[in-house]
């Protein structure tokens, strides 16, 4: 009888402890890790989300930039953090869907060590050409590529980066070629694009919007990669309407957490992220940089990650893309 009572007590304690996770979370500083250098596309999202959490929960937050190794350093840091929900990650396609298919080994397993909480927003990429190409529209751009085989260079933020894979898909579908010029990060690629040292770049819209609007003497926006035109640059056509039927590639940003975060904490984070994206300053902050606010459940984002990972794996294999 005493043994039975002890077992019942343990079971009740375990159940009450599990139920208490969400009730007591958060109870200290929240750290939101951005696995890229400061000043990039993800910083406004991290700070906007942190501001909302602080207003609702009354706990302080910090944004910590941990760049390096194609976002694997920051992602690996969060994957190894204590799974109490106080260390979070702003995640994106590179570390979640591309790196596991590109590198022989990553310091985390997606779906096990690092798990999705919610989408934050989506954005197309934009094909931007340097004015040194002397083209004014997409038709002239394609004609230039066909007439200058082996002489046209496109930038990327690094081998295997989304800014590398998307143009590879584009070149195949358009039946043209160009020479890949990888840079160490997006800002370096943009600098050389504006300087006329490379010919074109597929840039996520948030980091392109500013210079596309203000540097018209340096660049020409030719097309966006979504099925529908972006409301932030409605005058720029889609690749789909320009002849590449069905071309639809979007970048996205999400909130992720260590894999052993309790399910009730995960649910609480996901629900509060959805509230932050539904009203208040965060949606406007995202729209201001060309990102469409969009929330999801952890399960929905997990399924999107699985689907995109399979697609990128096939492209990486078909193009024989390798990192040094």
What are the key terms here?
324 residues; alpha/beta; D-Maltodextrin-Binding Protein, domain 2; 2 domains; 10-stranded mixed sheet; 44% helix; 19% strand; disordered N terminus
Detailed description of the structure:
Strands 1, 2, 3, 4, 5, 6, 7, 8, 9 and 10 form a ten-stranded mixed β-sheet that branches. The chain has helices at 2-24, 43-57, 72-79, 93-102, 138-147, 162-174, 186-194, 205-214, 263-278, 281-288, 298-319, and strands spanning 30-34, 61-65, 87-91, 114-130, 153-156, 179-182, 200-204, 219-224, 250-258, 292-293. It has eleven helices and ten strands. Strand 5 (153-156), helix 6 (162-174) and strand 6 (179-182) form a beta-alpha-beta unit. With 324 residues, the protein is an alpha/beta fold. It folds into two domains: 21-122 and 251-319, Bordetella uptake gene, domain 1 (D-Maltodextrin-Binding Protein, domain 2); 124-224, D-Maltodextrin-Binding Protein, domain 2. The model is unreliable at 1-5 and 7-19 (pLDDT under 50).
Might you state the CATH topology name of the largest domain?
A: D-Maltodextrin-Binding Protein, domain 2
CATH architecture of the largest domain: 3-Layer(aba) Sandwich
Global shape:
globular
CATH superfamily of the largest domain: Bordetella uptake gene, domain 1
Low-confidence stretches: 1-5, 7-19
N-to-C CA distance = 65 Å
- What do the pLDDT scores average to? 92
Biggest sheet, open or closed, and with what strands and sense?
10 strands, mixed
Number of strand elements: 10
Give the topology string: H per helix, E per strand. Answer: HEHEHEHEHEHEHEHEEHHEH
Rg, Cα atoms, Å:
22 Å
Quickly count the domains.
Answer: 2
Count of DSSP-assigned helices: 11
Helix content: 40-55%
Write down the CATH class of the largest domain: Alpha Beta
**In percent, how much strand structure appears in the residues?**
15-25%
Label the structural class: alpha/beta
């Amino acid at each position: 009888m005493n043994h039975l009572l002890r077992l019942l007590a343990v079971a009740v304690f375990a159940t009450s402890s599990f139920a208490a996770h969400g009730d007591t979370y958060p109870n200290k500083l929240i750290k939101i890790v951005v696995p890229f250098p400061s000043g990039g596309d993800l910083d406004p999202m991290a700070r906007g989300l942190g501001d909302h959490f602080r207003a609702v929960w009354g706990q302080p937050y910090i944004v910590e930039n941990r760049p390096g190794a194609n976002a694997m350093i920051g992602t690996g840091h969060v994957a190894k953090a204590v799974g109490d929900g106080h260390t979070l990650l702003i995640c994106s396609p590179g570390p979640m869907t591309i790196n596991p298919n590109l590198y022989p080994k990553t310091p985390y397993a997606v779906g096990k060590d690092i798990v999705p909480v919610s989408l934050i927003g989506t954005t197309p990429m934009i094909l931007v050409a340097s004015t040194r190409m002397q083209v004014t529209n997409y038709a002239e751009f394609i004609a230039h590529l066909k007439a200058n085989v082996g002489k046209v260079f496109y930038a990327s933020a690094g081998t295997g980066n989304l800014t590398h894979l998307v143009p590879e898909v584009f070149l195949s579908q358009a039946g043209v070629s160009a020479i890949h010029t990888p840079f160490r990060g997006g800002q370096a690629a943009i600098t050389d694009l504006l300087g006329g040292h490379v010919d074109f770049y597929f840039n996520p819209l948030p980091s392109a919007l500013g210079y596309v609007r203000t540097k018209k003497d340096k660049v020409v926006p030719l097309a966006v990669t979504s099925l529908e035109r972006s409301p932030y640059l409605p005058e720029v056509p889609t690749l789909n309407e320009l002849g590449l039927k069905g071309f639809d590639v979007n970048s996205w940003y999400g909130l992720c957490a260590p894999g052993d975060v309790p399910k009730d904490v995960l649910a609480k984070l996901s629900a509060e992220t959805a509230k932050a994206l539904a009203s208040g300053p965060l949606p406007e902050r995202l729209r201001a940089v060309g990102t469409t606010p969009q929330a999801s459940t952890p399960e929905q984002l997990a399924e999107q990650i699985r689907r995109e990972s399979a697609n990128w794996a096939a492209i990486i294999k078909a193009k024989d893309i390798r990192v040094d």
